């Protein structure tokens, strides 16, 4: 009896509280930057593709829904020849983002991806690539890496000495 | 067996080993860089530090490099000691101060010994905040990529390339903290063993450029144990596939065969599998629509096989199963080796010798252990490169053994031994037609025509066993050489004689046998090794079928209803075109099964796409008559591409009205083969049967980190297909299955927890650098018996140049003479252009200069080739490169004349 009364009281009290439901889709949910939604591939500050095709996101993915093939341009800069995410398998765990050494792959707060056909949930690189640096502006992996891939010359990167003169025996 | 205490636990270890080897053999994870099981220790990297204690009371101990300290009975050491651990992690931290932030774009990543050792030694945070040293890179040719920033100065590359393999053009330059490993200037690496740098270097300084073209991480490859297809040695390889393409080939350790190394042809010559030139569709020619499917082509085949005389032409590069399936289909009397008569004759002699069993034929490992080697007439540098590497080791090791017998220096102590040995060398007599890089380490060399080399051999045999006939009219020079060589062979405990088929000369084989047999009678454990031409030359020769020339002769007599079935063999490469054309002109129907389009497949009325080694299971018999299994790496997406023996089984089923009786699985074929032909006894044991399981599980071809399973095919259909089912072997096309050690013939890749690079092989070995657990793969089909030798005694006359005529002989080129390997761009670009060689005297007499065009007349055809004068070539011989793309086969060994056109 007491419990019944208590329940009625609680329900009655909620009449005067702030509504939790919203009029979706007219009204949008507030989503925070770290919310793990649709996955995108971002770009470097120089406008080039950020992904270097290292396969770490694919290896980290627990449902194995990322497949790609790395290739390189004449200057040796690696990028994915194709990059595919099967969102019908993705569990939005964010492991790929965590594994990515270049900040290329990012989960953004967009979850409105529903499709009528499951096949349409397979995203290719063109669908994933956005024209933005995403959450990590200013970072270009090739500036901190050792190799010269046409972004910076050897010795011009962050914390690099000029290349050794290999013909010199001087101390 | 000494007992040592590691962290207070007693272990029995093998005497004569160092502590690092002992620990690794016991399965203890101890990081190292500069030590290599095949190259010993130099103590350069300081990574393998452990503590050694004086006795039980000693609590402080001292740090030592485990690779530089031998095991002693009762020794107390600690791997887990805090100081040792801190030291090791500090060493990696120092190495890392200059290491670039490259892993994501480094091809070594995922199979990187440096990554593994860094994690193992517990260094995980960079405290060093100063600048990193950088280096310029070099262009090292089309096969190897150079990224010097990643070097950790372990010196392994130079120790392998320069010391182990005898290469001259890679070395260490500069000084102190900026030593540089590379060439004096940009340029193609010259050594045919350069590809091993990829595996020897513990970092990503040297990486595989062919893999870079279609880069895949090790964990993403579908792998299978395979056997190299590019020469008769049958080195064990691991081939990896991704997205339906073969991506790379790496070494598969086999203690008895190739050990840790492959030659560049074997490592990089895999690209033919991905070639545009592949046959992908059965074709029925001269029809409105030539392309046919499996069923149509079989329907059509029914009319070709029934009521026709069948002739089968086998192949030295097709598997035993395929050759046998063809032989069964056409009948033994109608089965011919697709090999010219002269070569069959030489090969038959080799098989006779091995089968008689009175002489032991050594494995490559045994050749390494030999203390005197005589190479009689075989250019092993070009025809059997890993054997040349083994011979080099024998020469180097013999000298080292002489030293270690006198001084108590352990065999693994590479630096000390090198210091003592200096330029001392073991005995190698390299008797060849042309100079070879092996000459530098040879104590005796001779350049002569094949018959003269054979005469030298018979002269040696006569000295060793005076009851054998003397060589008539032997010159003084020959006798002096023979005396030198026989003395060295006699003094040796384990002499090895090497001969082969590349001179197409039977006398050489007989001479080599006589020497080995003479040594054997003198109570020596002499070995006799032969080199053949193709990966299954031995297997085919052992079937003892007749030569192609016999087929040509017999077909002339046959009624006009012959259907010829040619198995994976471009006849135009080994047999003069006139003969092949004569054969084809008598065939009513020509059926060709092959992998790549070539001149022979052009002649086919019915062309059937066969699987390459990567798409097929197959057994190959190498030069020591070791049968080895090569497993399917991937199932071709195109289901028309199938193993030849499967196609042939289907054709056979057409003939049998009752559809039973044909073998279903490979092992059934092999059992039938050994039942019918006892020389193959044992071949069915070469790998576990197709239904072999461990605890009910298969052995996965894919690593447990294999990625992209639910996305790689999602562009075609989003529902994942059922994993491919392999009905022919116990390997699976999945990531699931038995994760322990598989039986050695079925190791798809080397991996162990914490050991992602190929160096994890230690975990698969009985002891570091020893045999694989459970025995090395492969079954030797011939073993030594006590049969007394039958000496040959038939000595050829000395070679005398003829006036206006030259003996035509082939020159094999490691890069260029291979039918399949030239599909790799980087190999094709290093292949020589066609040429013809004459000796200096012959060229002068004919008033020819280098570069002049010489017309060579052979088999009724004239070939115009540029002249390259070879000063070392014996007079009276005309040398033409064999098997270059676009060049026809000539009648090797024939006397021909030439006319000259000077341009
Ligand atoms: S982890 Fe990042 S850089 Fe590497 S493949 Fe994935 S998206 Fe590209
Ligand atoms: S060598 Fe190894 S540790 Fe160094 S960048 Fe390459 S993968 Fe990373
Ligand atoms: S290049 Fe590789 S093998 Fe050579 S010293 Fe450097 S790390 Fe060692
Ligand atoms: S030596 Fe012969 S079998 Fe070995 S890797 Fe080279 S080509 Fe292949
Ligand atoms: S492995 Fe012992 S010092 Fe390098």
TrEMBL record, chain A:
UniProt name for this protein: NADH-quinone oxidoreductase subunit I
Pfam families, per database record? Fer4_7
Specify which residues bind [4Fe-4S] cluster 2 according to the UniProt entry for this protein. 61, 90, 93, 96
Q: Which organism is it from?
A: Chitinophaga filiformis (Myxococcus filiformis)
Q: Which reaction does it catalyse?
A: a quinone + NADH + 5 H(+)(in) = a quinol + NAD(+) + 4 H(+)(out)
Report the function annotation for this chain: NDH-1 shuttles electrons from NADH, via FMN and iron-sulfur (Fe-S) centers, to quinones in the respiratory chain. The immediate electron acceptor for the enzyme in this species is believed to be ubiquinone. Couples the redox reaction to proton translocation (for every two electrons transferred, four hydrogen ions are translocated across the cytoplasmic membrane), and thus conserves the redox energy in a proton gradient.
Instruction: Give the family, as the similarity comment puts it.
Output: Belongs to the complex I 23 kDa subunit family.
Q: What is its main location?
A: membrane
Q: Where does [4Fe-4S] cluster 1 bind?
A: 51, 54, 57, 100
User: What membrane topology does the annotation report for this chain?
Assistant: Peripheral membrane protein
Oligomeric form and interacting partners: NDH-1 is composed of 14 different subunits. Subunits NuoA, H, J, K, L, M, N constitute the membrane sector of the complex. NDH-1 is composed of 13 different subunits. Subunits NuoA, H, J, K, L, M, N constitute the membrane sector of the complex.
What Enzyme Commission number does this protein have?
7.1.1.-
The 4Fe-4S ferredoxin-type domain extends over 39-71, 81-110
> In the record, what terms sit under GO molecular function?
4 iron, 4 sulfur cluster binding; iron ion binding; NADH dehydrogenase (quinone) (non-electrogenic) activity; quinone binding
What does UniProt give as GO cellular component?
plasma membrane
Q: Which HAMAP family match?
A: NDH1_NuoI
Lineage of the species this protein comes from: Bacteria, Pseudomonadati, Bacteroidota, Chitinophagia, Chitinophagales
Q: Keyword annotations for this protein?
A: 4Fe-4S, Cell membrane, Iron, Iron-sulfur, Membrane, Metal-binding, NAD, Quinone, Repeat, Translocase, Ubiquinone
Q: Which GO terms describe its biological process?
A: aerobic respiration
InterPro entries named in the record: 4Fe4S_Fe-S-bd, 4Fe4S_Fe_S_CS, NADH_quinone_OxRdtase_chainI
* Cofactor descriptive note: Binds 2 [4Fe-4S] clusters per subunit.
Gene3D superfamilies for this protein: 3.30.70.3270
Which cofactors, by name?
A: [4Fe-4S] cluster
Q: Where's it found, cell-wise?
A: Cell inner membrane; Cell membrane
Automatic annotation (TrEMBL), chain B:
The segment(s) forming the 4Fe-4S Mo/W bis-MGD-type domain are: 221-277
Q: Which GO terms describe its cellular component?
A: membrane
**Which InterPro entries does the record associate with it?**
2Fe-2S_ferredoxin-like_sf (IPR036010), 2Fe-2S_ferredoxin-type (IPR001041), Asp_de-COase-like_dom_sf (IPR009010), Mopterin_OxRdtase (IPR006656), Mopterin_OxRdtase_4Fe-4S_dom (IPR006963), NADH_UbQ_OxRdtase_75kDa_su_CS (IPR000283), NADH_UbQ_OxRdtase_ferredoxin (IPR054351), NADH_UbQ_OxRdtase_Gsu (IPR010228)
Indicate the enzyme's highest-level EC class: translocase
Q: List the keywords (alphabetical).
A: 2Fe-2S, 4Fe-4S, Iron, Iron-sulfur, Metal-binding, NAD, Quinone, Translocase, Ubiquinone
Q: Could you tell me what the cofactor note in this record states?
A: Binds 1 [2Fe-2S] cluster per subunit.
Query: From the record, what ranges are coiled-coil?
Result: none
Q: Which PROSITE patterns match?
A: 2FE2S_FER_2, 4FE4S_HC3, 4FE4S_MOW_BIS_MGD, COMPLEX1_75K_1, COMPLEX1_75K_2, COMPLEX1_75K_3
Asked if the Swiss-Prot or TrEMBL record annotates the protein with the keyword Nucleotide-binding, the reply is no
State the EC number(s).
7.1.1.-
Please list the residue ranges annotated as the 4Fe-4S His(Cys)3-ligated-type domain: 83-122
2Fe-2S ferredoxin-type domain location: 1-83
Enumerate the catalysed reactions.
a quinone + NADH + 5 H(+)(in) = a quinol + NAD(+) + 4 H(+)(out)
Give any single GO term for biological process: ATP synthesis coupled electron transport
Which superkingdom?
Answer: Bacteria
Quote one Gene Ontology molecular function term: 4 iron, 4 sulfur cluster binding
**What is its cofactor?**
[4Fe-4S] cluster; [2Fe-2S] cluster
Q: Which NCBIfam families match?
A: NuoG
Role description: NDH-1 shuttles electrons from NADH, via FMN and iron-sulfur (Fe-S) centers, to quinones in the respiratory chain. Couples the redox reaction to proton translocation (for every two electrons transferred, four hydrogen ions are translocated across the cytoplasmic membrane), and thus conserves the redox energy in a proton gradient.
Q: Which family does it belong to?
A: Belongs to the complex I 75 kDa subunit family.
Q: What quaternary arrangement does the UniProt entry report?
A: Composed of 13 different subunits. Subunits NuoCD, E, F, and G constitute the peripheral sector of the complex.
For this entry, the protein name equals: NADH-quinone oxidoreductase
The organism is: Chitinophaga filiformis (Myxococcus filiformis)
């Amino acid at each position: 009896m007491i419990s019944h009364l208590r329940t009625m009281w609680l329900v009655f009290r909620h009449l005067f509280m702030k509504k939790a439901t919203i009029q979706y889709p007219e009204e949008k949910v507030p989503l925070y930057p770290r919310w793990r939604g649709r996955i995108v591939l971002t770009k470097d500050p120089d406008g080039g593709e950020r992904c270097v095709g290292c396969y770490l996101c694919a290896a980290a993915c627990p449902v194995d829904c990322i497949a790609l093939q790395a290739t390189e341009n004449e200057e040796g800069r690696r990028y994915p020849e194709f990059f595919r995410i099967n969102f019908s398998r993705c569990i939005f765990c964010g492991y790929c983002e965590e594994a990515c050494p270049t900040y290329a792959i990012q989960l953004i707060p967009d979850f409105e991806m529903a499709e009528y056909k499951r096949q349409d949930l397979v995203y290719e690189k063109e669908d994933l690539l956005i024209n933005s640096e995403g959450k990590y502006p200013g970072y270009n992996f090739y500036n901190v890496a050792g190799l010269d891939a046409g972004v910076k010359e050897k010795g011009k990167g962050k914390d690099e000495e000029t290349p050794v003169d290999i013909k010199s025996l001087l101390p | 067996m000494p007992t040592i205490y590691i962290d207070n636990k007693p272990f029995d270890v093998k005497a004569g080993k160092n502590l690092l080897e002992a620990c690794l053999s016991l399965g203890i994870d101890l990081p190292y860089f500069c030590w290599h099981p095949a190259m010993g220790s130099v103590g350069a990297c300081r990574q393998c530090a452990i503590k050694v204690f004086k006795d039980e009371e000693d609590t402080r101990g001292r740090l030592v490099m485990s690779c530089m300290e031998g095991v002693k009975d009762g020794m107390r050491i600690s791997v887990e000691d805090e100081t040792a651990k801190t030291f090791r992690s500090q060493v990696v931290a120092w190495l890392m101060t200059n290491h670039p932030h490259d892993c994501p774009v480094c091809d070594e990543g995922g199979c990187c010994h440096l990554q593994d050792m860094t994690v193992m030694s517990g260094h995980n945070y960079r405290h060093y905040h100063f600048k990193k040293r950088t280096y310029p890179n070099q262009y090292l040719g089309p096969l190897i990529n150079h990224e010097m920033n990643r070097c950790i100065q372990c010196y392994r590359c130079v120790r392998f390339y320069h010391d182990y393999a005898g290469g001259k053009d890679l070395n260490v330059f500069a000084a102190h903290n900026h030593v540089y490993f590379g060439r004096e200037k940009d340029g193609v690496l010259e050594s045919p063993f350069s590809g091993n740098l990829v595996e020897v270097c513990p970092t990503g300084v040297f990486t595989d450029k062919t893999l870079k073209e279609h880069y895949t991480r090790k964990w993403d490859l579908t792998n299978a144990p395979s056997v190299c297809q590019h020469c008769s040695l049958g080195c064990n390889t691991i081939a990896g596939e991704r997205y339906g393409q073969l991506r790379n080939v790496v070494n598969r350790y086999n203690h008895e065969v190739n050990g840790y190394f492959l030659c560049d042809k074997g490592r990089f010559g895999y690209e033919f599998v991905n070639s545009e030139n592949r046959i992908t569709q059965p074709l029925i020619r001269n029809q409105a629509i030539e392309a046919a499917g499996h069923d149509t082509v079989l329907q059509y085949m029914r009319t070709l096989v029934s009521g026709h005389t069948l002739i089968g032409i086998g192949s030295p590069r097709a598997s035993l199963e395929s050759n046998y399936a063809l032989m069964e289909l056409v009948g033994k009397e109608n089965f011919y080796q697709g090999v010219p008569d002269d070569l069959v004759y030489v090969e038959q002699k080799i098989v006779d010798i091995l089968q008689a069993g009175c002489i032991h034929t050594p494995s490559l490992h045994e050749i390494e252990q030999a203390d005197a080697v005589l190479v009689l007439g075989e250019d092993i540098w070009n025809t059997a490169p890993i054997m040349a590497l083994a011979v080099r080791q024998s020469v180097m090791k013999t000298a080292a053994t002489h030293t270690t017998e006198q001084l108590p220096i352990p065999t693994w102590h590479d630096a000390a031994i090198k210091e003592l040995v200096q330029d001392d060398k073991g005995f190698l007599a390299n008797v060849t037609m042309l100079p070879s890089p092996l000459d530098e380490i040879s104590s005796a060399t001779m350049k002569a025509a094949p018959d003269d080399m054979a005469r030298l051999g018979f002269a040696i045999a006569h000295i060793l066993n005076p009851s054998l006939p003397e060589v008539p009219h032997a010159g003084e020079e020959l006798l002096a050489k023979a005396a030198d060589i026989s003395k060295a062979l006699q003094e040796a405990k384990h002499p090895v004689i090497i001969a082969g088929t590349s001179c197409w000369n039977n006398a050489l084989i007989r001479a080599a046998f006589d020497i080995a047999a003479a040594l054997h009678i003198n109570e020596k454990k002499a070995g006799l090794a032969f080199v053949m031409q193709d990966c299954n030359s031995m297997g085919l020769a052992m079937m003892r079928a007749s030569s192609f020339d016999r087929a040509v002769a017999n077909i002339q007599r046959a009624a006009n209803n012959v259907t010829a079935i040619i198995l994976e063999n471009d006849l135009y490469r080994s047999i003069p075109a006139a003969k092949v054309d004569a054969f084809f002109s008598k065939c009513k129907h020509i059926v060709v099964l092959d992998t790549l389009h070539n001149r022979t497949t052009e002649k086919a009325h019915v062309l059937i796409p066969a699987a390459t080694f990567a798409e097929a299971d197959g057994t190959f018999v190498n030069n020591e008559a070791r049968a080895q299994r090569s497993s399917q790496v991937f199932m071709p997406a195109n289901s028309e591409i199938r193993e030849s023996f499967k196609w042939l089984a289907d054709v056979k089923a057409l003939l049998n009205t009752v559809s039973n009786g044909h073998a279903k699985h490979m092992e059934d074929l092999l059992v039938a083969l050994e039942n019918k032909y006892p020389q193959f006894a044992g071949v069915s044991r070469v790998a576990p049967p197709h239904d072999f399981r461990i605890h009910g599980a298969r052995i996965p071809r894919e690593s447990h980190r294999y990625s992209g399973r639910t996305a790689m095919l999602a562009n075609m259909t989003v529902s994942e297909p059922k994993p491919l089912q392999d009905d022919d072997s116990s390997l699976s096309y999945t990531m699931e299955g038995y994760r322990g050690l598989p039986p050695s013939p079925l190791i798809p890749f080397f991996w162990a927890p914490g050991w992602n690079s190929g160096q994890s092989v230690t975990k698969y070995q009985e002891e570091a650098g020893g045999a694989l657990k459970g025995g090395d793969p492969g079954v030797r089909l011939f073993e030594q018996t006590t049969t007394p030798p039958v000496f040959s005694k038939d000595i050829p006359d000395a070679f005398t140049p003829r006036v206006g005529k030259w003996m035509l002989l082939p020159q094999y080129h490691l890069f260029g003479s291979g039918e399949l390997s030239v599909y790799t761009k980087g190999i094709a670009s290093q292949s020589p252009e066609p040429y013809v060689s004459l000796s200096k005297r012959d060229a002068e007499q004919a008033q020819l200069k280098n570069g002049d065009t010489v017309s060579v007349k052979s088999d009724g055809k004239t070939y115009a080739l540029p002249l390259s004068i070879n000063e070392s070539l014996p007079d009276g011989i005309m040398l033409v490169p064999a098997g270059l793309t676009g060049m026809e086969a000539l009648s090797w060994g024939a006397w021909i004349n030439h006319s000259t056109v000077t341009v």
